[in-house]
Design brief:
The chain is an alpha/beta fold and 278 residues long. It has 10 helices and 10 strands.
Amino acid sequence: MIINGKIQSEKLRKQIKKELLEICKTTKDVPKLSVILIGDYLPSQMYVSNKEKKAKEVGIKSEVIRYPETISEKEILDKIKSLNKDSEVTGILVQLPLPKQISQKKIINTIDPKKDVDGFNPLNVGNLASGYEGIVPCTPLGCIKLIKSVEENLTGLHAVIIGRSNLNGKPMAQLLLKENCTVTILHSKSRDIKNECKRADILVAAVGIANLVQSDWVKKDCIVIDVGINKLGDQIVGDVKFDDVKSKVKAITPVPGGVGPMTIACLLSNTLECFKAR
């Protein structure tokens, strides 16, 4: 089974649009997403453009605030503080990666947790780790939705995550624990990664190494979620060798067309949740 992220994301966007239409029957307010884009890094530009398009399709206002690569950290922090105070702004997102003169930690810490649609602020991270309600990072949230489109009940399954980043690996582990999975996190210092992967009922690859996971890394009936986006020659490939692995496993996401569309749909879902909470 190929898990089609485009179809799943379209379903989620339709739900968001329907819910928003109902809410807007009783209020003149609409959610507004403010995205800060720094520099001219092409993948970021394309990603932000797609976010803007999809937001408007579901009825969310969207603005992109663009700055040159040379912008100072203070100017960005001042802008975030201004957006924090702006009652029209529901969600704030600063597109990563950032230029070297700007601290990612300071940016994330400055965004109001109630407007933190990326779910990276320490308060939202803590809520997720503690099992409390809060905004969940978009990519892991998209991944768990894709997994549950294949298998609704994950209780007792062994989930293996390759990658321990704050953006993907760690929040992914928390979401899988919430679903009563047994979770193993692998990283660059782990031993015998291949055999650890072979034990997985659910394998999430989020390490950024093209075609790392081969067919002999996975067991039959495994659900494979490929978060990786890597350029290999003129191709975009994931962390999983898709053509070799797909015939062996129960389900797998392609790259592109898997996790990417769901990440954007979950961003819109988070924006709606921030709007409802306000």
